[in-house]
Every structure is written in structure tokens, then in C-alpha cells.
Amino acid sequence: RMAQTSQEDVLLQTLCHNLSVLDQKLQQDSNWATLQQLRERVISQLTWSVRSDDAVWNFVTEVLVQLLCLKQTMIELLEQFVPPKRNPKSPECAPALPPDTLSISQQKTVQTALQFVITLGICPYLLPGVGTPLRCRSDFAATVEKLVCYLASPRGMWRLHIVTMALLDIANHPSLENLILTRHLGDLLASLCQLVYSPNKYQQNLMSEEASRQEDSEKQKGLTDAEQQSCQQALQKLLDRVYQPIVVKELLILQGGIKQVVSVCVGKTRTFSQTPAWLRHRCGQLLSERLMKPNGVQVVVRGIVEGAGAGIAGGQSAEAAAADWRKCDIVARILASCPQQCLSVEEYYRQVCPQVLELFHIKDKLTARQFQRVATMTFLSMVKEQPELTDKYLLKPLLAPLICCLDIKDVEGCSQMGAVIVEESELTCCVDDIYKKCFFLSISSGCQDIILWFLQKSEPPVAMLVLKQLAGLAQSSPVKNPLYHFTAGSEGGVKLTVKETVSDEDETLYEKVSSEQWRIECLAQLLSNLQESNLTGDFFIECLKGLTCLAGEMDDRLATSRTNGLPEWEQQEQQLVTLQLIAVLCERFGHLVLNNTVHLCCRSLSLSLQHWIVAA
Length: 616
Description:
Domain TANGO6 HEAT repeat: 291-439, 444-533
Number of helices: 28
Region (Disordered): 207-226
Shape: elongated
Mean pLDDT: 77
Pfam families: ARM_TANGO6 (PF23565), TANGO6_N (PF25267)
Domain TANGO6 N-terminal: 3-290
Strand content: under 5%
Number of domains: 4
Number of strands: 5
GO biological process, one term: protein secretion
Low-confidence stretches: 150-154, 202-218, 258-269, 309-318, 441-445
């Protein structure tokens, strides 16, 4: 305790000594006369006093005055600056820097001054749970906290207002704005939120009854209505002027607060005040405002996941990967939940869902992986929360180019056959987005990979039905419009166009046979990628069952029941397709198509049938 008191005394004596030295320089040193004149001019424009009986507060106000003098000097120098003409003989020379540019050494000096202002003039007057406590920042800050709290004036809210508005005034200069907002944005937001939204904004912070009688009654009232309104305008201006993802990040930190900090020195965990309910509520509203603005989804996503690190998961270690997944899950739950101030859930989904789809189109590879993960997890969260609205505003727009292929439209009246129904770029983008949603990867799209992913993730009966539909052995609904077909695009993709009318019956028959042959070859290629699963063998057995009537291994009545309800020509067509399928599968896979114990009993049948097909 004596050591701590000694540190506080040393700090207080140092501040008083520095103020005394500055006063002597200003009064006695002629080299400081210009600064003294500027200082007096700046002080005359202030609405608050720079001197009191509190040495710490005197130090804060003096630093603010010096920063205001610096700002005014930089403005005057820039007004008098006339850029020199560039020498045409040396065009490679860099242009002269404006006189308000600070050197690296000068920037460090300004940063030190700002650190003193924040530590001594803002942090001590923040309410418990608002912002990061001083004792959580550094040992020096912890010492400052004890000193300032011990000498704290009952006019805490009024002092907080003075320091905050002065810093915002200084930040109006571009060269100083960057130094202030890059390091101290969170503290300024915490201060403004307390000044605007705190239920105690009209009361005194750290004020005893005895001290309140001694203070000026006007200052004891806290903030006036005009001052509170100016703070609210300053907060809104600050939120709009800063890079929005950084605003989101700082608001989330301010909303969450610091609940506990582990002390390395003593190995203990100390619990601090949680964020007040009013601050959590207001930060939530401010975050929702960011979200509901144009491109608000990207702003929120960048504010949470941007800058997580390098690598696929946003970091090099397993901890970084896990943290990145948690962040993506948090963003997904935020985006799937409708804010309270939104007019309706449907209006929210109508505005947000198109922005979620845009997350698939980020160009930067590292950022794209994170954004695609967020978009996919948001899709899943929205399906659970609002399945109908998700289908209307997310799923259907995603699949719109493919849905156009299925719509039955009147194209017979088109004056020009071959008209493009869906552009190549739209189809490519659609398939690419579906691919990214399945695999979280930003590589070239592949329809085959999407189908394989679906077949592997589906239940066996569903996967078998889809394979039959792809083979033409089962009716699919909906079907592709018979008047449309896919044609090659100029960029390596495809586009949907209207078929040209073919009057020659032989040509029509040739196109149909070629199309069926191509479909069977594609299906065989698809099944070759599924050999490790049982799906290929199961499908082959299903094809064998369809031909048992031809091989004489089943009763004709059973065969009739299998095709009951179909016209005779369709029955014959299905049998021919089945026969062709088995021939292609036997040729490509042989007996290896049956690869487990359930399939082994059918292997002898397949071998004999293979010889029968070859002989036929």
C-alpha cells in the first residue's frame, strides 16, 4: 500500500512540476512568446476554464490547449503554403510535402499527449462497465486510476464532455484525425454513448454530498439539453465518418465489455463490472443501423471476421481456426435475426438476403473464404428461422437462372429462334455460387461436383431416385423446357437459348439418340466417382432388376406391374435405356461395380448377363 501511494505521489508531483516548468517558459522565455500569444488566443475562445484546484485536471486541460494550438498552427501554415513548381528536368522527384505534415517523431509526441488526455481525462469518468477500465490497460494506467479516482472532481460528467468535444474538435484536422481515431475511437465512442444515453447523464459522477455544496451550482447540473444534443450529433457524425467495419468492431467490444481479466503477476482472476443494460441496448441499436444501411451485411461481416489472420481459417493454428468458425457462426446468427426496430421480418429478409448472396462474389481469395463460410452458415440459420422467407428471398434468387430453364413459356411466337433466355455469365455465376455454398471454396464451378455432393449427402432412396431421373428411368418434375437448350458460351460456359425448329424427322431422331447416348455416358462418368460408396453397385442392381423380364428370371406379371400405367412405347424405351445403361456400366466397370458382400450374390448374375449382352 505504501509503494502504491508513493507511485501516486510521484506521478502527481511530476504533473505539477511539468505544469510549473511550462508556465515559466511561457512567461520568461522570449522564444516562447509566439506560442504564448497563440495560447491566449485559443483560451479566449474556450467555454471552459483551464485552471482549477485539481492538478490532474489542470494537466489535462493544458495538454488540450497545446493540441488546439497545434491544430491552429497547422491550419495557418497550410493556408500560407504555395506548392513549388515541379522541375521538368527531374520529373521523378517527389512533390514537396505540405507544411502540416508531421514527422514520425512529431507523431509519437502527439500520440503521447493524446494518451495522457485519454488516460487522465476520459477513462476515470466513465461509468463502471463502460469501456475498458484503466486497470486492464497497463500498470501505469492502474496507478493513474487510483490517483484520479482519489482526486476525482464531482463534475465528472461535465469534464468528460469537455475532453470529448475538444478531442473531436482537434480531430477535424486531417493530419490529427488519423492519430486520434486509429488509437482512441473506442474511448471516444464509450464517452459519447455515456454522455448521450446514460440514465445518469444529468447527475454527478463520483460526487459526495459535502463536495456538491462547495461546487458551482451551474456545473453540478451536468449536461444541458443543448450540450446533450451536440453530443448526439457528434456521435452520429463520428459513426458515419469512420470506416464502417471498424465502427462495428468497436461497438461490439463496447457492447460486450470486459467481464474478467487474469492477472499474470498474482495468477488470480478478477471480475469487473459488466456492461450496463442501457449500453448493450444502445449498441445493439447502433449495430442494427449499420446492418440496415446499403452494403450493411458486408460491413458487419468485415467488422467481425476481417483481419483474423492468414490461412484458410483466418489463422495458422487450430485455435485460430476454431475462433474463425465461431466468428462466422456469430455473424450468421446476427444476420438471421431480425432487429427489433425493423418494420417487419419480411422487409428485413427482403433487404438483407440479396446482400448475403453478394458475399459469394468477393474477389480477394482470403476474404472470399471467410465470406463464403459466413454466407453458407447464414443460409442455414435463415432456413431454420424463416424457411418460407428464405425460400422467397434467398433460395429462389440464387437458383433463378436454373429456374428459367424449367419454366414453360410461350416461345413459339418469338420472331427469332436462337434468342438467348439466360446469359452465359448468369448461368456460370449461379452454378459457381451453388458450388461455393457446398464446398466453401472459391475455385471454378463444376456441375458434376455439385451433383456428387448432393448424392453423397442424400439418403439412399433419394439418391437412387435422382440417379433414375438422370438416366431417364423415372419421371422428373419439373423438367427442362423442351423448347430450350444449352449452347456454348464465348467465355467457356454455357447459355440457355431457344431451339431452332428442325423439320427433318431423321435429323430429329438423330438428335434424340445422340442426346440419350450422351446422357448415359455422363451418368457413367458420374458413377465412376461414386465407386467407393455402395451407390454405384445399388444402381447397377436396380438396372438388373429392370431387365429380369428380358432375361427370363421373373414372372411376366411382375414385369407388367413394374411398368403399369405407362404407354407401351415408353415401356419399350425404358427397357432399351436400361439395356444400354447396363452395357455401358459393364464395359466401364466390369465385375468391380459390385464391391461389397450384399453385391457379391449378384456378381454371378452380372457376369452371365454381361456375356449375354455382348452376345446379343
